[in-house]
Amino acid sequence: MAKKAAKIVEEQIKAWSYQSSRNISSQKQKTKFPVITISREFGARGAALAELLGQRMDFKIWDKELLKAIAEELGSDQKLLETLDERRQQAVEDAVAGFMDDIYTNVNYLRSLIRVVKTIEEHGRSFIVGRGANYICQNPKSFHVRVVCPFKTRVTEYAKRENLKEKEAHEIIKQKDKERAEFIKQNFYRDVTNQSDYDLILNSKTFTLEQIADMVLDAYEKKIGQKITLPE
């Protein structure tokens, strides 16, 4: 998975580098849309929402495995920074330095994660799933979503999807929720359940993924103040 993900990232870096090097008038450049981050309770289907919206909106999707692959496999933050101009490179570096003043755990991983997320944010037109991306992004127009679902419902549905006994699914979800909460607390000093950290919180038991996607798109357009032309 990591090698495959790294290859995808390499291709994306090449695409960014190509776009940055082309001499195109600003009127003809593709409109830059702010990123959307998706935080989610384990089993609430936040990653599936990102996939659905990514197809609808023609946005790049960066999930947790991909971010991990960038940090662990590529190990070349400079490749990402080279897709930005010098002024934006410095902005990313300054942001990383600011975070690192307060973060001492897993420094190398976090430094790579922060640099990658900030670079993705600079390029826009992307979904970033998990890994505390909403705490890293600083563009006030970036849009932050959290997908929740009652624990019992997550256990039942996850057990069905993964062909597990509910007792086993219960333990997995409990552990994953704990790990995610601890990651945010230890590295960003935040409570992942703090509602004010998100622009929109949606319950995947109450709504279908399609309905949630509609609401996210509508709220996103309202926040950024412009409509998105969806691909046919």
Q: Approximately how much beta-strand content do the residues carry?
A: 5-15%
How many domains is the backbone divided into? 1
The CATH level-2 architecture is identified as 3-Layer(aba) Sandwich
How many whole angstroms does the radius of gyration measure?
A: 18 Å
Number of DSSP-assigned strands = 5
Average pLDDT level: 78
Number of helices: 10
Quick one: biggest sheet? 5 strands, parallel
Global structural class: alpha/beta
First-residue to last-residue Cα separation: 31 Å
SSE string:
HEHEHHHHEHEHHEH
What is the fold-level CATH name, i.e. the topology?
Rossmann fold
CATH superfamily descriptor: P-loop containing nucleotide triphosphate hydrolases
Label the overall shape.
globular
Low-confidence stretches: 23-29
Looking at how many chains there are and whether they match, the oligomeric state comes to single chain
Q: What is the top-level CATH class?
A: Alpha Beta
Outline:
The protein is an alpha/beta fold.
Report on this structure.
With 232 residues, the protein is α/β, with parallel strands linked by helices. The protein has one domain (2-8, 34-220): P-loop containing nucleotide triphosphate hydrolases (Rossmann fold), CATH 3.40.50. The protein is built from ten helices and five strands. Strands 2-3-1-4-5 form a five-stranded parallel β-sheet, sandwiched between helices. Helix 3 packs across helix 6. It is globular.
